[in-house]
Design goal:
The structure holds two protein chains of two kinds. Chain A has ten helices and two strands. By secondary structure, chain A is mainly alpha-helical. Chain B has a five-stranded parallel beta sheet with strand order 2-1-3-4-5, sandwiched between helices. In chain B, α5 (about 145-150) links the parallel β4 and β5 (about 160). Chain B is globular and about 65 Å long. At the A-B interface, α1 and α9 of A face α2, β7, α8, α9 and α10 of B.
């Protein structure tokens, strides 16, 4: 029975990890390429959840999975063009403050636009229910989420590792000066990365709205976990973030089974242990600019 | 000699000027705050320090609370105020128990509030009530439900408006017993891991034990948990007859949504649910039997008028925390008017006289003198059959008042023999 449970919990942990991944990956990319700790990242996640409620009315749930991240991604272009761009070369504390401020403004804006009461978002009935496999039980919707996250992650990996776009971005992370010497402007790449990052965060909001609560502070709440994941995984590493997200998801799930009260603490303990023995994170690369 | 004299004069002048500047700043400051200087304290507005969580897992309820008390203050002020003075309610986000205590202390010291009111979080209510007792100022604890607050942690400066945990457990529990869901059944419980949840769990276990149910598991859930899948898997392993939730705020909503998502077949009931949490769960996700202190479908003329006015003013149906804050300020105004005073001791004496208050329910309510809690009707509710809801907030089926009309109002509250309250 315990084995069955562990398997179930590992799958659920993967789902939860996938969810963290949607946020953490964008956070990590924006930091690696632009040197900006985007504290407003959670706001785009919340916006995704809220916008999705409106988009569902016109395009249905499946339509919203495609349309909402695109809308938020477009907003991301403006965010990069008019805000982030000013801070690439400035003291990191400034970008920290400005994105923190934006996060607060965004939370209040959501409150003004949609009210502070949590909104009811319900998934389409065909997604509801359980899938029984032998002794194990899974939520059909969560397996669906896992599928979507896998596809999105595979897409981003291909983009970063198999295209010239990805090569420039990765070179930009490692040696921005060299990229400049070669006559490549990193600016448009940065715009694309921010757009991609906030769009995946918004997708997280779309997918998780139906099983959690859509409320204005949801972005702030998720940010802590997203940061923990990025720190454990190591900055600048695609697989590091993937590994850390899944690890945090599984560790939390299993801890809650055996020691419910320690469930929330478990990921911080994990972070503590990782940093003790490997300060740059599990698969983190050395980034000269920040060391 | 002359030089020294000059210096002294300059010093005197500069110290005079400093005093003048300070006085000026004081006057300017008081003007900015909207009261005419210090001498006017007795004729100026009556200041009420209002604390409620506006962020965090109870934040959505806190917004209703702030709107409810604001509406009451505006109505009272429009009718001429209390003792010819306006009510000035300052609402602040209490955030957490530590911040709540700090803000309460500041409201007493700096803002010189006449009374403290508010709160939903039982932990914050506890720390505010300690500040109130220390400063000998009245605290009307409005939306907190923990028994501990009215039991071992009670004090003579604190009065409790919401129904206590015992009443909520009894209200939903009796309905569960009637449905045959307790006797000889296996019950799995989930409990919010803070003062209120623990209280709820203790009472629920007592109730089940007294009615022949067996609690086979009780899991603590941290207040910031949003993913319930590990708990749902445990429930499935335990295969209970009934899942009883002692959760709070957002937790309830997340739980019922994910319970519906996983499609578990066991019956669910809960001992705590606010209507806003139920609305957020959405139709089709919520099931089972729950208790409530008030609901917008309560058919008394007072309640219906309140619902109509609130909906007109804020563009949404009031939640139970809007109602309770509204009636609480009205009770406070009644006490001040009746005693012709804002003096703490006189107000305490008035509340302890078991004076009757119209709280827009069928029966009037009163504060029990020995433990300061409001004796009032409560209600169980279930969920309407699918397809009967007229709108998104209409799927709750509102039950008959408890205690029943022929029973005394205090019959569900803990009796003196069981209470640890010593004032």
């Amino acid at each position: 029975m315990e084995i069955v449970f562990l398997l179930e919990q590992v799958v659920n942990g993967l789902v939860l990890g996938g969810y963290y991944l949607l946020l953490a990956l964008g956070l990590s990319l924006i930091f690696s390429v632009g040197g900006i700790v985007n504290l407003a990242h959670g706001a785009f996640y919340a916006l995704g959840a809220y916008l999705s409620l409106e988009v569902i009315k016109h395009a249905g749930f499946t339509g919203s999975i495609f349309i909402t991240p695109v809308l938020v991604g477009l907003l991301g272009i403006l965010f990069e063009r008019y805000l982030l761009r000013r801070f690439y070369t400035a003291d990191p504390i400034l970008s920290l403050l400005v994105t923190f401020g934006l996060a607060m403004v965004a939370e209040q804006a959501l409150r003004m636009a949609w009210g502070s009461a949590p909104l009811a978002s319900t998934m389409p009935p065909e997604f509801k229910g359980q899938l029984i496999m032998g002794d194990m039980m899974f939520s059909r919707y969560r397996l669906f989420i896992l599928g979507v996250v896998t596809v999105v992650m595979a897409g981003i990996w291909l983009l970063l590792h198999k295209t010239s776009f990805g090569r420039v971005v990765r070179a930009g992370v490692q040696k921005p000066d060299m990229v400049a010497v070669l006559g490549i402007r990193l600016q448009p790449y940065m715009t694309a990365i921010v757009m991609l990052g906030v769009a995946t965060a918004a997708l997280g909001g779309v997918l998780f709205g139906p099983i959690t609560i859509v409320h204005p502070a949801m972005g702030t709440e998720i940010m802590t976990v997203a940061f923990v994941v990025v720190v454990i995984g190591g900055l600048g590493s695609f697989w590091g973030v993937v590994l850390a997200a899944l690890l945090v998801g599984v560790v939390r799930g299993v801890t809650i089974h055996f020691q419910p009260a320690a469930g929330e603490a478990s990921m911080y303990v994990l972070m503590f242990l990782v940093l003790m023995f490997r300060p740059r994170g599990l698969l983190g690369e050395r980034i000269e600019r920040f060391e | 000699m002359e030089a020294k004299q000059n210096k002294l004069e300059t010093q005197a002048l500069s110290s005079q000027r400093r005093t003048l500047l300070q006085a000026g700043a004081l006057v300017a400051g008081s003007a900015a705050l909207g009261f005419p200087g210090l001498a006017g304290a007795q004729s100026g507005p009556i200041k009420i320090g209002h604390l409620t969580p506006m962020t965090g897992f109870l934040g959505a309820l806190g917004e209703y609370a702030a709107q409810g008390i604001k509406m009451a203050a505006e109505e009272i002020n429009a009718a001429g105020g209390v003792l010819g003075r306006q009510l000035d309610v300052m609402s602040e986000d209490s955030v957490n128990p530590q911040t709540a205590a700090t803000k309460a202390q500041r409201m007493v010291e700096r803002d010189k509030v006449t009374v403290l009111m508010g709160e939903i979080n039982s932990g914050s209510a506890l720390t505010i009530s300690q500040v109130a007792a220390r400063n000998k100022i009245l605290f009307m604890s409005i939306g907190a439900r923990s028994d501990a607050l009215r039991g071992k942690d009670c004090n003579r400066y604190t009065f409790h408006v919401d129904i206590p945990v015992t009443v909520m457990v009894n209200a939903a529990g009796e309905a569960l017993v009637r449905e045959g869901l307790v006797k000889g059944k296996k019950i799995f419980a989930l409990t919010a891991d803070y003062l209120f949840g623990h209280d709820l769990s203790r009472q629920a276990k007592r109730f089940f034990a007294a009615n022949g149910g067996t609690v086979i598991g009780d899991e603590l859930v941290a207040t910031d948990v949003t993913d319930f899948s590990p708990y749902l898997l445990k429930i499935r392993q335990a295969r209970p007859d009934l899942v009883a939730t002692n959760l709070a705020g957002n937790q309830v909503t997340n739980f019922v949504k994910q319970y519906a998502e996983f499609g578990l077949p066991y019956k669910v009931a809960g001992f705590n649910l606010n209507t806003a949490d139920a609305w957020a769960a959405g139709e089709g996700n919520l099931g089972g039997i729950w208790p409530t202190v008030w609901h917008h479908e309560l058919k008394t003329p007072g309640s219906q008028a309140f619902v109509a006015n609130f909906t007109k003013k804020y563009g949404r149906i009031p939640e139970n925390h809007a109602w309770i804050e509204y009636v609480s300020l009205k009770m406070m105004a009644q006490a001040m008017t009746a005693t012709k005073s804002t003096d703490t001791e006189k107000l305490i004496a008035y509340f302890e006289s078991e004076a009757q208050f119209d709280i827009l329910k069928a029966r009037k309510a009163y504060f029990r003198s020995w433990d300061h809690q409001l004796m009032q009707e409560a209600y169980p509710f279930t969920v309407k059959p699918k397809g009967q809801a007229k709108n998104k907030q209409d799927f709750l089926l509102f039950g008959e008042a408890v205690p029943a009309a022929n029973q005394p109002l205090d019959s569900l509250a803990p009796p003196k023999a069981e209470s640890a309250c010593k004032m």
